[in-house]
Design goal:
Blueprint lengths: L2 E10 L11 E9 L3 E5 L6 H8 L7 E6 L2 E2 L5 H8 E5 L10 H12 L6 H11 L16 H12 L6 E5 L7 H16 L4 E6 L2 H6 L2 E4 L5
Parallel strand pairs: 3-8, 3-9, 6-7, 7-8
Antiparallel strand pairs: 1-2, 1-4, 4-5
Length: 219
């Protein structure tokens, strides 16, 4: 077992909520490298909140979240986000004034990863997710939704994180493109030994992953 992330008895409630009004209550999940996971649940079940906790964006919670047996509460969360965990969003979150390659290179710069030739590395990452080098200098708004999501995945891989966290990554895509993106995530898990966690409401996604965790509303 190659456990990389552990959610240990985590509970969360909004700052203005009543004492017993929890969005998440006593959540316990384990995540291993080499597997692809789905976290599903209806609206209001806490999927987005859990995403914020795993990514270290929300720090105020009960219980612990461990990355390789080290509590996130004791880690430098900026370093964690820029080195250990890659995040892919439903809306891509690419910078529209930059081209595809520049978006990926910017991620390398922020993470301070040491790469001899960043342009070459960016193109290599694009090719790894099914994009041709001819798209490298195309502005992201000139790309299709599927192409933009591939750029976003390539960007998240630019500093070689062990965990890929994807927030509804196929929510804006048609079924065929969804399957293409899912195949990339499956390859990252099964061939590249990454831990891939997908927050989703898609039945198709849940049917293709290794493990499904379901969140249920507490209130």
């Amino acid at each position: 077992m190659d456990k990389v992330l552990r959610i240990d008895n985590v509970s969360y409630r909004y700052k203005d909520a009543k004492k017993d009004e929890y969005v998440l209550k006593n959540i316990k999940y384990d995540f291993e490298k080499g597997k692809i996971y789905a976290i599903k649940g209806k609206s209001g079940s806490g999927k987005t909140t859990l995403l914020s906790l795993i990514s270290g964006l929300e720090k105020r919670y009960e219980g612990n979240i461990y990355y390789k047996d080290k509590s996130l509460k004791k880690m430098d969360l900026d370093t964690y986000r820029n080195s250990n965990i890659g995040i892919v969003f439903q809306s891509y979150n690419l910078l529209p004034h930059l081209n595809a390659m520049e978006n990926i290179i910017l991620s390398m710069d922020i993470s301070k990863v040491k790469v001899k030739d960043k342009k070459k590395k960016a193109i290599s990452l694009m090719e790894d997710v099914g994009l041709t080098s001819s798209l490298a200098k195309r502005r992201v708004l000139k790309l299709s939704g599927g192409e933009q999501q591939r750029v976003a995945i390539a960007r998240s891989l630019s500093y070689n994180p062990e965990i890929i966290l994807a927030d509804e990554p196929t929510g804006n895509l048609d079924k065929d493109t969804e399957n293409d993106i899912l195949n990339i995530f499956k390859r990252l898990a099964h061939d590249d030994n990454k831990c891939v966690i997908i927050v989703t409401h898609s039945t198709n996604v849940c049917n293709q992953v290794d493990i499904v965790y379901e969140l249920k509303k507490n209130n």
